[in-house]
Amino acid sequence: MRRLDYAALLEAIPAWLRDYARQAGAEGYVVGLSGGIDSSLAATLAVRAVGVEHVLGVWLPCHSRPADADFARMAAEALGLETVEVALDAAYDALLAALPAGTPLADANVKPRLRMAALYHLAQSRRRLVLGTGNKSELMVGYFTKYGDGGVDVEPLGDLYKTEVRELARRAGVPQPIIERPPTAGLWPGQTDEDELGISYDELDAILMALEAGEEPPASPEQVAMVRQRIARSEHKRRMPPVFVVSL
Fold this sequence. Notes:
By secondary structure, the chain is of the alpha/beta class.
């Protein structure tokens, strides 16, 4: 496990966000609030960066559970954050009705892609940037929706493993019930990130950290192979679309 200076991070990440917004000529950030630890921490860091008056929290229900709204509201109230609600249920239903029948996962991934479109509409209307909420663990194994929750302007948590996000969230003052809540993308009822990944975040982070350090991961060969496979198969998600270079 690497050792981080969390106090320094609580200064450095907001400073980076502040500078990035300034360089982009943006007036602040827009962040989708899911009620989870990642979006809550990202919003907290953005408020530290540009001030609460320049951060907009967006609740984007799409056949979501009432508990999700409660946690999102808790995160916003802890920061005194302005929020708007954009209900996407009808848009989701209409789009699926217009599409040929798809797989359950393809249908579920329409939700984060609709949320991405809504966030960019709000951000452009307010001359702001879309704040990403992805962490390093999820980015490395491709556990995000391409052009969905992966469609953002900045990723302040993108070099922090999930276990490190938890610790930084504690130090940043994210409400404890949010920190303790089982991570979920809310793609379908009862869905949790760890069930879908097939591994706990503690186990995943230990493997990823070892692989990054060139060390032998403290896990079974089967788990390591699974993680390696996820990294390889999701490489396309972490790159801009390749361009064919004309050289004839």
